[in-house]
Amino acid sequence: MGRQRRHRGVLILLLLAGWLLTACGEDEDSTMKNTADRPSMETVIDDYTQMRTEMVAAVDAIAGAGAWGNSSSIKELSRSGCRNGEDPDGERANLPNYTRKGPLTGDDRDAIMEAVWKVGRAHGFDEVGTIVDRPDDWEIYGEDPNGGRYVVGSSANTVISIGTGCHRWDTQPAPAPAPSGIPDHAKKDKG
Known about the structure:
Blueprint: H1 2-37, H2 41-63, E1 68-70, E2 78-81, E3 91-94, E4 98-100, H3 109-122, E5 127-134, E6 137-143, E7 149-154, E8 158-163
Helix pairs in contact: 2-3
């Protein structure tokens, strides 16, 4: 009887292990398939740029026109490979952060947050939420089904940050240039 229980236990463990291995393979295959079926990176960047323009217009319609521009910290589109388990032929990208000088923390704060969420929903960012919610500091987000995410927040200044999920390019851009060597201040022998 003890031997029969042991065999049954081993059989259950083997079936469980087989099921887990099969499930992992299906997830990876479906991730690859889903990435190939997603819009191209060029299409996504165009849509997210349009969404950012609409967010700025929605904020300005409530708070008055402001001076918006690329953040001094992230001025250009940045690119990276996709995460482990995602399509090795895909990439993720972050649009330049967009900044408006000064806070938007007065009486219009809640209306601004709702307006940003409304614009995001129109672009498929249906999962929304709040990260920080203080009278003088707020931050909200939205996520789309393909892994895209925006974060809009206001404290000392107001910032819109938008990143894509994993997408393939129609035409792969050239890689960023490699560093040109060791900076002079980092060289041991300066002579």
